[in-house]
# Entry
Amino acid sequence: MTDALATLAQAIRATDPSIRFTMLEVGAVPLGGEPEPFHRLRDLFPGSQIVAFEVDPALCRSLNEQAPPGHHYYPVALGRHAETRPFYLTRHPMCASLYRPNEALISLYQNFEVAYLGPRPQSTQSVWIRSCMTTLSVRSISSKSTSKVLSSTSLRVEA
# Structure
């Protein structure tokens, strides 16, 4: 990432020095040891926070032990409403999902083996899904400020 993001943040803060963001990270398995590019926004806008959800409780504990101020991980699976659903464990945790992998489709592409159901003894487990909006209100996150974020699939900052 270049300094373009820092320059933009500086211009925004010049307009409104009190601006801060609450960012949601749904599925927070770290990849490659590097933080996600949008994590930098927490530092560029003081008082901002990242609320991350990852279904693996042990991973959440570990991530919380290393988390900088303003970054909190919760071992929660989010959905439209509260229910118990199957959770599909794939060969790589980043591909685990509430949706069963379409292995016939995946097989058409190279190097997507990580998305196949895992070689673990149990490749499916039941998880309790919590209502997204209920979870956000319990965490004191305004559903009004996050509804736009939840409707988009991702935030990507590119140079």
Remarks:
- Residues 87 and 98 are 5 Å apart (CA to CA).
